[in-house]
């Protein structure tokens, strides 16, 4: 049987995929998965192509972690997502270009396209800035995830979560696509037409039975 259910290897593969696709640069992002009474998360300061499974860090729900290892500096907001959202089992954070542009401008992504419903709400909010790694930032992240499954983080980046790691990665890619659309629309200087709330409610309902389908 794979150590820790094979999750360390899947986390590393997701990190490498995130950088290859352009969703992230260097070691700026971090990925975690719920595991037993805590989570497994990427380490601090190790390049993704240099990581092996033994580098992935287990962080307990009480905040303790394995001796000799250092988890990502962002572990606190990963932890609070798991503690406040029992339906989410994987968290993906990155500094994707277009998402980060909007985050710097403190702009939520409104209902420019029905795919906004993939995140489970009427928009993708931008939560207030706080220094990385702090409890203050974790509080902002928790507030954002009380409304949907993806957020922008002011002057920081983007975070998406899902029932599985595959679904969290899929959602992160969708958020970046929506961000790119919105940035391009803003550049036209024209009034941007939005879908009405009642239509987004319909699509959110449809997404409960739609989205990424993963093979066992």
What does the model show?
The chain is α+β, with helices and mostly antiparallel strands. It has a single domain (3-207), classed as 3-Layer(aba) Sandwich (L-fuculose-1-phosphate Aldolase), CATH 3.40.225.10. 36% of the residues lie in helices and 14% in strands. The chain contains 6 helices and 7 strands. The chain has a 7-stranded mixed sheet, sandwiched between helices. Strand 5 (126-127), helix 4 (135-145) and strand 6 form a beta-alpha-beta unit. Helix 2 (75-84) runs parallel beside helix 4 and helix 3 (97-104) packs across helix 5. The two termini are 16 Å apart. The mean pLDDT is 94.
What can be said about this structure in brief?
With 216 residues, the chain is of the alpha+beta class. It has a single domain, classed as L-fuculose-1-phosphate Aldolase (3-Layer(aba) Sandwich), CATH 3.40.225. It has helices at 7-20, 75-84, 97-104, 135-145, 165-188, 197-207, and strands spanning 30-35, 38-41, 57-60, 90-94, 126-127, 150-153, 157-162.
